[in-house]
C-alpha cells in the first residue's frame, strides 16, 4: 500500500544559481520545501536531470517557475536486504559531470553488482533516465527490471513511496516524465556483476555472405533481423542508407561465460579488457576522428553560407553546382567510408597508388579551418538548462575559415601536425570525384584562380583535455570489424565516448512491435531508395530493440519492440523547422505501424498528438486520472506536456 509522509514546510534556504535560474536541493526535505513553496505561490516546477532530453520536456519557462537540478543529491546506500537505494540526482556511470567515484555504477562495481542493461550512454542522472523510459538494446534484459521501489514528492508536497508487487501505482509512476512528482530515491535489486564480449562488423547491404537477413524472413543459418534481435543478448545496428554507402554496422555482445575467458582476455580475477571503439584511433584517442566528423557535418550543413563570399559570381555558382552534384555520389560516401568501412574479409586491404594532382589547379598556400565554441549572443548558461541542444553548447562548434596570418584565438589549439593536403588526403581518394574536376579546373583557370592545397585545423583547447587513453599496441584488426571484451559498465554503453560537443546529435525514436520488423525495414529501404538524400539525410539511423514491460506509459508496455532512432546533426546552420520537417517524413511513414515515441526525444504533433497516443497506451486513461490526483494543481505540467498529452488547463 502506498505510504504518504507529510513534511512541514521550513524556511526556504536552498542553493540557487541566479545565472542559470536553477535550485540545487541537497536533501529530500529541500525538494519538499521547493514543491510546497510552489504550491503556495502557484509556481510551475520541473527537474532538468542531466539535460539529455528535449529542452521543453524538462524545463518550465513560466514566470516564477522553479527549475531544479538534483546534482547535489546523489548518495548511494546499500541496504541489509540486498537492495540499493539511490538518490535521484546520482549519475549512472562514466563521463558524467561528477567524478566516476560518485556514480551509481562505480558503487555497484565495488560490491560485485550490476544493473541488467543500460542505454548507449551513462552520463545521465538516475531519476531522469528512469522517468523518461530510457532503455538499452536487448529483448532479454531491461534496466527497469532491477528497480523495486521509489519515493517521490507529489504535487501537494507529500513524499510517497511505491514498491513493485505491492502498490499497483508503481507501474504508473516509474515512467511518468516527471508529471506525477519529483523522484527522490530509487531502490534497485541489482544483478551480480558481469563482463561482456562481442564484436562489431560493417556489412554491405549487397553482401550475400552477411549472416543476417536484414529485409527477409530468414533462412537456416541466417536469421531474420527480428530473430537476430531476439536471440542476441545485447545488440544495436547503425544503418547508413545513402546511395553509394548502403551498409549496416552490427554491434553485438553477450555476458561472458567461463569458456569465453582466454589467455588473451585474462580470467575474471585478472581480466584484461579490450575496449570497444566507436571511432578510429588517431594520436591515441577517438577525439580527433570526432573533430573530423564534426568538421564535415558543419561543412555539409553550412556550405551555402560559407561560399556566399566567393567572387566572381560565376565561380560561386559553379562551386555551388559542383557541391550539389558531387555531395551525394562522391563526398558523402567517401566520408561515411572513413568511419564505417565495409568488412570484406580478414585479409588486409590492397595498397593502391594515388594519381598525381592536376596541374594548375592548386596553389601552395596554407589556410586554416577553425572550429570554435558557439556560445551564441547571450550569456552562456549551464548547458543542462537548455536541454539536448544547450548541453551541446548552443549547437556545438562554430566553423570559421581564416588566413594563417590572422591572430590565433587564445583558447585555440592546432591539431594537425602536418597540413591536410586537399588533393592527396581528400580529393584523390574520393569515388568518382575525378569526373567533376576538369570543369572546376577550367573555370579556376579562366579566372586566374587556384585552390589552396594545404589546410591546418584549429580547435578549442579545452575540448581536447582528458583524452581517453587507448592501447595502440593491440593487434591490428581487419577493416570493418573489431572484437572487444570489457567490464559491464564500460563498453555496454557503446556510445559513451561520443562527444556531445563534437558530435551534437538530436533524435526522434519510434518504438514498434517487434513482429513488424521485416515490414518496417522494407518500408524504410523503399523510402530511402525513392527519396534519395532528402529522405536519408547525411547521418545514420539506429535500429535496436527493447524488452516488454508492465509500465503504463513505457513505449515497450506489454510488447517487445524494434526501435527506429533517426539522427540529426545539431548544427547552427539549419533551423528547428528543418529538423521537424525531416522527422515528419518518418512520423508519416511509420504511423501505420502504431509506433510509440520515446518521451525524451522529438515527439510528433498534429494528427499524431494526444488522441493518437491515447489509442496506443491501454492504461492512458488510468494514468491521466492518477496524474490529476497526484498533481491536482498541475505544478509539474508545462505547456509542452499539456500539448503533447492533451492535459486540460485547470
Automatic annotation (TrEMBL):
Stored SUPFAM superfamilies: FAD-binding/transporter-associated domain-like (SSF56176)
Domain FAD-binding PCMH-type: 14-193
Keywords: FAD, Flavoprotein, Oxidoreductase
Signal peptide: none
Keyword Oxidoreductase belongs to the record: yes
Stretches that traverse the bilayer: none
Origin superkingdom: Bacteria
PANTHER family with a match to the protein in the record: D-ARABINONO-1,4-LACTONE OXIDASE, L-GULONOLACTONE OXIDASE
Protein name in UniProt: FAD-binding protein
Biological source species: Archangium minus
Origin organism lineage: Bacteria, Pseudomonadati, Myxococcota, Myxococcia, Myxococcales
Amino acid at each position: 500500500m502506498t505510504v504518504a509522509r507529510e513534511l512541514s514546510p521550513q524556511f526556504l534556504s536552498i542553493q540557487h544559481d541566479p545565472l542559470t535560474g536553477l535550485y540545487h536541493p541537497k536533501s529530500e526535505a529541500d525538494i519538499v520545501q521547493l514543491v510546497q513553496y510552489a504550491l503556495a505561490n502557484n509556481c510551475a516546477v520541473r527537474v532538468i536531470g542531466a539535460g539529455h532530453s528535449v529542452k521543453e520536456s524538462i524545463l518550465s519557462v513560466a514566470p516564477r517557475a522553479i527549475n531544479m537540478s538534483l546534482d547535489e543529491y546523489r548518495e548511494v546506500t546499500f541496504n541489509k536486504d540486498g537492495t540499493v537505494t539511490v538518490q535521484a540526482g546520482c549519475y549512472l556511470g562514466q563521463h558524467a559531470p561528477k567524478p566516476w567515484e560518485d556514480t551509481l555504477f562505480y558503487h555497484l562495481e565495488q560490491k560485485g553488482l550490476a544493473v541488467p542493461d543500460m542505454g548507449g550512454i551513462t552520463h545521465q542522472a538516475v531519476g531522469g533516465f528512469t522517468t523518461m523510459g530510457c532503455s538499452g538494446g536487448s529483448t532479454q534484459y531491461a534496466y527497469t527490471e532491477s528497480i523495486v521501489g521509489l519515493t517521490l514528492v507529489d504535487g501537494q508536497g507529500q513524499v510517497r513511496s511505491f514498491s513493485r508487487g505491492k502498490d499497483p501505482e508503481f507501474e504508473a509512476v516509474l515512467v511518468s516524465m516527471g508529471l506525477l512528482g519529483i523522484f527522490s530515491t530509487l531502490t534497485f535489486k541489482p544483478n551480480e556483476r558481469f563482463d561482456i564480449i562481442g564484436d562489431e562488423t560493417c556489412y554491405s547491404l549487397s553482401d550475400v555472405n552477411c549472416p543476417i537477413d536484414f529485409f527477409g524472413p530468414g533462412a537456416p543459418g541466417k536469421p531474420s533481423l527480428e530473430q537476430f534481435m531476439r536471440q542476441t543478448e545485447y545488440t544495436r545496428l547503425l544503418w547508413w542508407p545513402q546511395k553509394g554507402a548502403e551498409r549496416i554496422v552490427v554491434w553485438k555482445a553477450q555476458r561472458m561465460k567461463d569458456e569465453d575467458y582466454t589467455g588473451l582476455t585474462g580470467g575474471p580475477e585478472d581480466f584484461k579488457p579490450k575496449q570497444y571503439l566507436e571511432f578510429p584511433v588517431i594520436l591515441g584517442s577517438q577525439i580527433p576522428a570526432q573533430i573530423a566528423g564534426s568538421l564535415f557535418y558543419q561543412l555539409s550543413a553550412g556550405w551555402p553560407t560559407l561560399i556566399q563570399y566567393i567572387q566572381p559570381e560565376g565561380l560561386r555558382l559553379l562551386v555551388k553546382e559542383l557541391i550539389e552534384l558531387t555531395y551525394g555520389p562522391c563526398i558523402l560516401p567517401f566520408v561515411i567510408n572513413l568511419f564505417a568501412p565495409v568488412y570484406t574479409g580478414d585479409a588486409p586491404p590492397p595498397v593502391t597508388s594515388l594519381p598525381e594532382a592536376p596541374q594548375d589547379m592548386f596553389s601552395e598556400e596554407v589556410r586554416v579551418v577553425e572550429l570554435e565554441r558557439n556560445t551564441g549572443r547571450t550569456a552562456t548558461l549551464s548547458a543542462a538548462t537548455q536541454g539536448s541542444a544547450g548541453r551541446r553548447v548552443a549547437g556545438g562548434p562554430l566553423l570559421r575559415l581564416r588566413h594563417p596570418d590572422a591572430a590565433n584565438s587564445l583558447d585555440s589549439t592546432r591539431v594537425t601536425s602536418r597540413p591536410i593536403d586537399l588533393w592527396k588526403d581528400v580529393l584523390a581518394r574520393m569515388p568518382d570525384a575525378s569526373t567533376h574536376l576538369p570543369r572546376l579546373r577550367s573555370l579556376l583557370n579562366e579566372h586566374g584562380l587556384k585552390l589552396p592545397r594545404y589546410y591546418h585545423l584549429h580547435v578549442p583547447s579545452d575540448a581536447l583535455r582528458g583524452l581517453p587513453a587507448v592501447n595502440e599496441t593491440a593487434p591490428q584488426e581487419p577493416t570493418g570489424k573489431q572484437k572487444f571484451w570489457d567490464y559491464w559498465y564500460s563498453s555496454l554503453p557503446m556510445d559513451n565516448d561520443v562527444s556531445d560537443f563534437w558530435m551534437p546529435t538530436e533524435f526522434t525514436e519510434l518504438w514498434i512491435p517487434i513482429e513488424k520488423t521485416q515490414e518496417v525495414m522494407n518500408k524504410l529501404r523503399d523510402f530511402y531508395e525513392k527519396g534519395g538524400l532528402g529522405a536519408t539525410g547525411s547521418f545514420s539511423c539506429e535500429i535496436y530493440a527493447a524488452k516488454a514491460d508492465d509500465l503504463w506509459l513505457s513505449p515497450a508496455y506489454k510488447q517487445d519492440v524494434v526501435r527506429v532512432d533517426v539522427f540529426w546533426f545539431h548544427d547552427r546552420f539549419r533551423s528547428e523547422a528543418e529538423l521537424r520537417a525531416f522527422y515528419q517524413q518518418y512520423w508519416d511513414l511509420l504511423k501505420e505501424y502504431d509506433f510509440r515515441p520515446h518521451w525524451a526525444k522529438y515527439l510528433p504533433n498534429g494528427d499524431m498528438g494526444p488522441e493518437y497516443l491515447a489509442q496506443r497506451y491501454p492504461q492512458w486513461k488510468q494514468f491521466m486520472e492518477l496524474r490529476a490526483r497526484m498533481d491536482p494543481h498541475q505544478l509539474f505540467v508545462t505547456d509542452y506536456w499539456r500539448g503533447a498529452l492533451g492535459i486540460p488547463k485547470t
